[in-house]
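Lecture 7 notes: from sequence to structure.

We start with a single chain of 181 residues. Read the sequence below before looking at the structure.
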Amino acid sequence: MIRRTQTGRLGYVLVEVIVSLVVFSIGMVAVMRTFSVAANARGVAQDYTVGNFLCQKLMSESLAMPELPEGSTEGNFGEEYFIQRWSRTVKLIKVQMVAVPEVQQAPKKRRLSSFRRKLKRRGIAAGIPGAPAAQAQQGGKEIVFREITVTVSWTRRSAQYSVFAETRVPVRDGAMSNVRA
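Now the structure, written as tokens:
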């Protein structure tokens, strides 16, 4: 009788060990999956950081160019950033100006900020970037803006990601020869 009890007890311990190994392995699979998801999320966050940096860099270069032709261009960033591709679209937009009423000056003199002094020296009307004050008073004139859109895109694990930046810059009078009517 003693022998029978020990054999039954040994079988019960073996089943406990097997069940605990199964539970442990299921838990380890969940933990490993969590590490995999966290590593992928870190990679995507790093890609977005690099993408934003490259997008700002390309936009700065675009704004520094004196003549930027209308149309679309695309390319890549070379060997250092080989997975990112860029595209830039430039459109010219005509905006009809509206008459701006004369603003009454305050009786007491206020000190203007350096930004407002610069605007006043350049003759820029309030509320309309790039518009000379004389034209703003008349109204009915057109201002031409260059709309620049920069997009940086990349692929990670067969998923497509992208970031973009867009701005509008007034076109100077000498650069208006390529404006379509």
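Residues 2-97+141-178 form one domain. Keep this in mind for problem set 3.
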